[in-house]
Amino acid sequence: MGERAGAAMRREAHRTDSEPASPLRLSIAVAGCGPAGLAAALMLRRAGHDVVLFERFEAPRPVGSGLMLQPTGLAVLRRLDLADRIVAHGARIDRLSGRTAGSGRVVLDVRYAALGRVDHFGLGVHRADLFALLHDAARAAGVPVRTGRTIASSRLAGAQRVLLMADGTESEPFDLVVDALGSRSALAPPTGRALAYGALWATLDWVEDAGFDWTMLQQRYRRASMMAGVLPVGTSGGATRRLAFFWSLRADRLTDWQAAGLGVWKREVMALWPDCRPLLDQIEAPDQLVFARYAHRTLPRPAEPALIHIGDAWHSASPQLGQGANMALLDAWALALALAARPERDAALAHAVALRRRHVRLYQWLTALFTPVYQSDGRLLPLLRDRIVGPVSKLWPATRIQAALVSGLVGGPLRALSLDD
Prior knowledge:
Elements: H1 3-14, E1 27-31, H2 35-46, E2 50-54, E3 66-69, H3 71-79, H4 83-89, E4 91-93, E5 95-100, E6 106-111, E7 122-126, H5 127-140, E8 145-146, E9 151-157, E10 160-165, E11 176-179, E12 193-194, E13 197-205, E14 216-222, E15 226-234, E16 242-250, H6 254-260, H7 262-272, H8 277-280, E17 290-292, E18 295-298, E19 303-304, E20 307-309, E21 315-316, H9 324-341, H10 345-374, H11 380-392, H12 398-407, H13 413-416
Parallel strand pairs: 1-2, 1-11, 2-8, 5-14, 11-20
Antiparallel strand pairs: 3-7, 4-7, 5-6, 9-10, 12-18, 13-16, 13-17, 14-15, 15-16, 18-21, 19-20
Helix pairs in contact: 2-5, 2-9, 3-9, 9-10
């Protein structure tokens, strides 16, 4: 058996019947080992393309703490035959709850049950678990990973594209480069704006009888300038249940926070949410907390000759609606679907963008609308949220609209990508 024939048979053995198989056979470089890059590499390899992953770290690794997988992202993982594994390690989230400090006024109450489908729920997971799931699947499919490669830019070489590294070296030409380098991608032109607020994240052990609910994402607010949250993230395959704790913080106040010390900060958290004491007792050093910065940006041209930007490299926003990883998975699926549907590369890239553009625009607009309500220095919007929006949101049809919004289902993205069966 020839080497090409053997490789083709191995690729076909890893592909499920529900995944798109492409009539094209392209050499593809995928830049970045986040959810977008790993998912794209896996799908494109299974579809029969020759794929190489490029990663700047010497050993690929996840960055960050917890995230929420929504019905949209889970629909993609289900088609990849990976959903059952991540659900087994994660924490099923049935409800999102937010209350004001002191009075305990309910200003956020989202229940997935309002969607009327038992398979529509949120899943709290640690980024490391999602990374391991996708990374192992990509390697099992035969995707090679070139580590220690910091990408600085790219250039066209005829109809192909070459990656230029920060150390002055170049890659071989590829038929297609998939940019999954995130919101600070060196392959994308600068656009958008940095957001004033970021967040401190820590992964901690779950504490029984501390007032938290394993099936809920819970938050506490003081106006919109102070917020704490607790997200169950599962067990990572072990016996200990884990959670992600996050604290909203202006990026320009990070240095002051570091200088003040943990004691000052812990007292501030306790004044907002006393139930957090057993969580704070687990934080003994500042390096247990990772600060995440956010940007709101949308590339006007996500596809160029022999290059497409997906995930945060195309569109990034605040995490208020929890769509980042889910949008990345949808983008990767759309790319694989488009390459399977179009016999010419650049037409396929345009089709991939068309499949996602409406949903991306909608959620970029919605996130920009909601972010100041929960993360800003304003006073009027939080007052309206607390006095009007909160009570109204408990009534039908607001309950269903909220659930659809948080689930990522507004705009019908699953139907557009043939994922709604």
